[in-house]
Design brief:
Strand order of the largest sheet: 3-2-4-1-5
CATH class of one domain: Alpha Beta
Helix content: 55-70%
CATH superfamily of one domain: Regulator of K+ conductance, C-terminal domain
Largest sheet: 5 strands, antiparallel
Distance between the termini: 43 Å
Shape: elongated
Number of strands: 12
Radius of gyration: 28 Å
Strand content: 5-15%
CATH topology of one domain: Alpha-Beta Plaits
Length: 563
Amino acid sequence: MVWVEQFLVKYPELVVFLAISIGYLIGGVKVGGFSLGPVTGSLFAGILIGQFADVPIAAMAKSFLFLLFLFGIGYSVGPQFLQALKRDGLKPVLLAIVVCVTGLLVAIVVAKALDLDPGFAAGLLSGSLTESPAMGTASEAINALPLPEVDRLRLVAHIAVADAVCYIFGALGVILFCSVAGPRLLGIDLAAEALKLERELGITRTAAGVASAWHRFELRAYRIAESAPIVGMSMRAAETTLPEHRLFIQRLRRGGLILEAAPEVVMAPGDVVAVSGTRETLVRVLGPRAEEVEDRELLDIPVSVADVLVTSRDIRGRSIEEVAKLGWAHSLYLRQITRGGNDIPIGPGVAVERGDVVRLVGPEAVVSHAAKQIGAIVAPTTATDFFVLGLAIFLGGLVGVVVAFPVGDIRISLSTSVGTLLAGLLVGHLRTRFPLFGRIPDAAVSLMTALGLAAFVAMIGLHAGPVFVSAVSEAGIGLLFGGMAVTILPMIVGLYFGHYVLRMNPILLLGGLTGAQTMTAGMAAIQDRSGSTVAVLGYTPAVPIGHILLTTWGTIIVNVVAG
């Protein structure tokens, strides 16, 4: 054991990777559908390893990784953050603000009542509200306090201890409240309410387990019979006979010639037309009415699939149904909408928002033209704009140091952490206006956020490990029960505020509550019990607000309790 301790102390950089590995192993274990997740798993792994040795941790390494994480988070939610403040998603935004502010106030009251030091208070907040990044902002705030270094180190260790004590109920509390207790308090059936909302938005559920050979959009050839009702009609008129199904004629064969689609071309008996549409429509609507033929040459049309970033003011806030009626949407189909990294269910009543990424399918020329009307094609890239990345973090951190605001009798600086987060938000938002600005591949952002936070939290765990047992004894059982109050009270306040004041749809309200707590597992629990993904429409506007406010609260609670 002596050799193990000496090895851990001599090679701390290797110990961090060991803690991350064990953390992901611990975090992936599910008990009754619940798991700690890799970040909290890394915290516990660090605390466990810390029982064997007092592993030295470089402050600069922690800060470097944490700033990368914060910038990555800001960069990811930036395209939706400002838009969430402008659109109908304002209700989830207000909900998130109320939940986060309530959480901060309850945490301060509990910390004062239990006479917790700033470290325990910050860990109480980060664990109970399941926002691990608050540990970083709190650590920075503690290191700025006018205290001896030994006291600052002790308080930073207390953050990890309190977070570990409070996190498990914090996560379980949000999951159970939003998926079980919340619906009962509202007196609703989750499955029935989700189905009702889907019908209002025109969302059609798709069967699970569809094989990969199935294609939602297809192009098929049909021969026009002499008695067909479209004989003598122009192409455009023929397409409008079934407007609700969005069937488009791409080209036709007349004799030995292939004619490209044009509004003035008149349908004649014996013509073979290439028609595009959803597979379901072609099979159920055209199948019984027309003779399908195999014509490879006619159907050999270049089809493009492209991801397009929505930047146009002309379509933001408009429903999918409205956008589909625009001239440039002719022959265009929508396969997927991604908002803030989450897939949004597609239905005629669902609104398209600036910052969304839409996946379009259609003839190559049509997709290319439509992309110019919508925004810009998001082509895969492997290059990271390190000039923007480095400069943004530097300037954001500089602003965080310089800018301060009063809270009671004290002045609190934004801190380099919050400044970096805001810089990420700004760069992320600017992407919606200038798609080629500050481009960072999704894989790189994922690495920054996942590895950055897991490594940072693992280091905090390693630092707290040697004092964990004594610190838990010092804090007492009151910390656990106080954490329960900090988790549950904001949920209750948010539930009734959203229901009676904001008059939110129950499904969107519950989704907004999980977004305010940045608890993706809570949203997944709602989706599982409701059998629908529609709760994500309430989650996506709330989650960026939750990330910003809860991360900032780490700085505020330290200064308030210390003052």
